[in-house]
């Protein structure tokens, strides 16, 4: 049956071919004679590999290999230089080899939902035209920072995975409009998220998030989904303050951080000889109250932002806990009335 369809397509010099749901265990090699083909649908079959003849489909822009039995992204795809849309959902894929990505430089949309991927290779950065990447329902443990160089990326779907963090560099995805990371194990979100000024939809439901990055309320979101997270609540608790004693490291760091702000500082002139110290000091925080620099998070406070009024975002939460860092109890005791300390349970 499939062979008849392919032969008919060859005779008619077809540009599209539909071989969906034909119980195929192999793609007919004659497909390679359809060099004018731009769209090939062959989902819902039993394929686990592609014939080498596929390499001849140099005009193919859409390929749907969804719901088959592939265990890796087929190597033959690297010859399909015109490919723009690639569906590989519903397979058993646990591996993307980096050389496949070499040939997919024109791809705009990849759908790898419902597979078994644990990692995205760093070579993903080669897909410079990628606008939409969907890897929902996999086993992803991390997101490579190299993904964050994809300047054209508009939608990133990584829901239902095992992510614990997102890279700080996510802030470089300046064209991102939608970020879906629901049902992971995220314990927080990177501050870099605040740089995504085109972000309209953020879905972080079903994670372990307690509070949001400090400038989150400045991102003009239209939709925010954050249900099923242990978000901090605005509830009064009694707290006893211990006397404040800084560690020696923190004390020295604060002295140096204060000193290097002076243009004539000797330490400022010499610090580049000590790259390790420089790296440590570069992780400094700024006190939200006195503006002084400090190293380790001393006191984490939150401010509650009214999502509907202040952000004009549609969401199922009314008050969004947004992080604020303070340098000392002195500042904590002088804080404004809208800043709340976080109770440790
Ligand atoms: Zn302070």
Automatic annotation (TrEMBL):
SMART domains: LRR_BAC, LRR_TYP. Residues 109-202 form the Disease resistance R13L4/SHOC-2-like LRR domain. It comes from Pyxicephalus adspersus. Keywords: Leucine-rich repeat, Repeat. The keyword Repeat applies. It holds the Pfam family LRR_8. This is Leucine-rich repeat protein SHOC-2. It comes from the Eukaryota. The keyword Protein biosynthesis does not apply. GO terms for cellular component: cytoplasm. PANTHER family: LEUCINE-RICH REPEAT-CONTAINING PROTEIN, PTHR48051. InterPro entries: Leu-rich_rpt (IPR001611), Leu-rich_rpt_typical-subtyp (IPR003591), LRR_dom_sf (IPR032675), LRR_domain-containing (IPR050216), LRR_R13L4/SHOC2-like (IPR055414).
